[in-house]
Design a protein that fits this description.
It is built from 8 helices and 11 strands. It is 34% helix and 21% strand.
């Protein structure tokens, strides 16, 4: 199999501002993004954190280094991430690194495509890192195992920052597999937008448990939940599962997964 690997041997210095932009459905990506920002700041860099669901555009200076973080969903990531990437203005050679969080595998469905998108925007790709975190759907794992995954990924986040600074990075792309898996992911997301899919498979509300607190409506990243007596989920669900995680009454779940399988990262803030 032909591996197209970009490996760079140069570092970055503290005169460069680090801007870490992220989207997080249930908190995994958020806590890793926070750790990366903290690690940069602890060694003298100026690093800031931007939640992309609240930002239309970011102001990028000539010396700024950009980080992009997101969760893996069906081998790629959510449309909200791609919508943000489209809004980024072209730059002139700014460095960029990226990372994802996942419970399973991406099968290279995002790495290659993301590098292409960012390079077409004028960025120089530094490196890509995947962080294995507790899954948030389908299977429930022991708490000790989940905690171990989080702790390992937080340690890896420190190591990732060290590699960014030293320039000891790579961004792997397997051309054919990357394109096939990305295309497969886009097909699945396009199917999920159809009215019949939204009607049959979007998140569901147990009205006997819903107390109409409105937390799910406030926290939904795509503003797809209204409170009309009880919570009512619209037809623009991207299946990030945040609503299930933040609901204090355990009233929201997926069609294929009971509420107790959904996971909200400890320390996440929405």
């Amino acid at each position: 199999m032909n591996h197209n690997i970009q490996k760079l041997k140069f570092g970055i210095t503290p005169d460069r501002r680090i801007i870490v932009c992220y989207f997080s459905g249930t908190g995994n990506t958020q806590i890793i993004a926070k750790k990366i920002v903290e690690s940069f700041n602890n060694i003298g860099f100026t690093s800031t954190l931007i939640n992309i669901e609240n930002a239309d555009k970011i102001s990028i200076g000539n010396n700024d280094v950009i980080g992009i973080g997101f969760p893996i969903a069906v081998f790629s990531t959510f449309p909200i991430v791609f919508n943000f990437l489209e809004k980024i203005d072209k730059v002139n050679g700014n460095y960029v690194f990226a990372f994802d969080t996942l419970g399973g595998t991406s099968l290279w469905g995002i790495k290659g495509k993301l590098r292409t998108i960012l390079e077409n925007k004028g960025f120089q790709a530094l490196g890509f890192q995947e962080f294995r975190m507790p899954p948030n759907i389908f299977m429930k794992f022991p708490e000790k195992w989940c905690r171990s995954r989080v702790e390992n990924s937080l340690r890896q986040a420190d190591e990732f920052v060290e590699k960014i600074i030293s320039g000891d990075l790579n961004w792997t792309r397997i051309p054919i597999l990357s394109e096939v898996m990305f295309g497969f992911s886009r097909v699945l997301f396009n199917i999920s937008k159809h009215k019949w899919h939204q009607k049959c498979f979007k998140m569901k509300v147990d009205t006997s448990k819903c107390n109409s607190c409105g937390i799910c409506s406030t926290k939904c990243p795509v503003k797809n939940i209204l409170i009309e007596g009880k919570a009512k989920i619209g037809n623009n669900c991207q299946y990030c599962f945040r609503c299930a995680g933040v609901c204090p009454s355990d009233a929201i779940s997926g069609i294929a997964s009971p509420r107790d399988l959904h996971y909200l990262a400890e320390g996440a803030e929405f």
